[in-house]
Design goal:
Elements: H1 2-22, H2 33-78, H3 82-90, H4 98-109
């Protein structure tokens, strides 16, 4: 067992000396003001782009819901919401837009 331990001690000592010789004693690095500001500008640009993308993904269903409520309120104030509700029931994914409300009003007048 002593022979095996001495072998590992020799390997450990050689490895530590190699790593110590490769690593520098001091890190002499300098980032000038131009490069630093460019780096910060690029970083803030990426952060802003990701933030805006998240904002618009979150706001998309909210805008859709508000438009649907506005169109339903316009249809209800027009008097006959049964035609608009029937058209919305045919395609529940699309909100009753103002063109659908106007079409329902024209159909009602005819």
């Amino acid at each position: 067992m002593t022979r095996l331990t001495k072998r590992y001690e020799k390997f450990l000592l050689t490895g530590m000396l190699t790593v110590g010789a490769i690593l520098p004693l001091t890190a002499e690095a300098y980032v000038g003001p131009g490069a630093g500001l460019s780096l910060l500008t690029a970083l803030w640009g990426i952060i802003a782009a990701v933030g805006m993308a998240l904002f618009f993904v979150i706001m998309w269903p909210i805008r859709r819901m508000r438009r649907r409520r506005k169109a339903e309120a316009a249809a209800a104030s027009a008097g006959d919401s049964s035609t608009v509700q029937a058209r919305t029931a045919q395609n529940p994914e699309s909100p009753p837009t103002t063109t659908r409300v106007e079409q329902a009003q024209r159909d009602q007048r005819s």
